[in-house]
User: Fold this.
Amino acid sequence: MDKANLYQLIGYIASVLIALSMMMNSILRLRVINLVGAASMTIYGLLINAYPIAVLNAFIVLIDVFYLYGIFNKKEYFSLLQVRPESRYLEYFVDFHKIDIRKFVPGFEHAPADTDLAVFVLRDTVPAGVMIVEGDVTPDARVKLDYVVEKYRDFKVGNFVFCEKASVFRDRGIRRLISEPGTPPHAKYLERMGFVPVLVEDRREVFALDLRATDSRR
Assistant:
């Protein structure tokens, strides 16, 4: 490949990345992809001596770096809000997000039981996610739902629940959380949170998190 075609390829890749970043719902993903695209476009501009293009995109790189620094260093406040399993707001929340929920847990149906543990994860007082866990089975308890709203999917919610607030489950006699793998993205999330694949009695593979080991991850 000669230089002209190589430079053109860099320009096309940079353009695609910048356009793709505009399609991201997640601000974090938008900034990261836009940063890579703008950096590539800066290089492209320098290679073809198009300095206005290079200067403009170098400025965009600085803007993205500034906002990413703010995102990663912003002080956020997390808390848990326990609600009744039959809470009308919980029902509304699950129903509102049901299409997105089924992208990760296709078989989920909201069927509250009196013994369930239902908690909202608040992020700066905003409901960022919800967990519903069977509360009448110990020491193992099945996770009925572990869902995080798309804009908050940066693993901070999961780390807060499974590391900082694991005592919420242990205080109820729960020593291990069992979760269905769901779709591949959900299984990947579970592994990121420390769940490991195990076989249950019917030789079906599920994911399990030993809550006695979560303190060591903090």
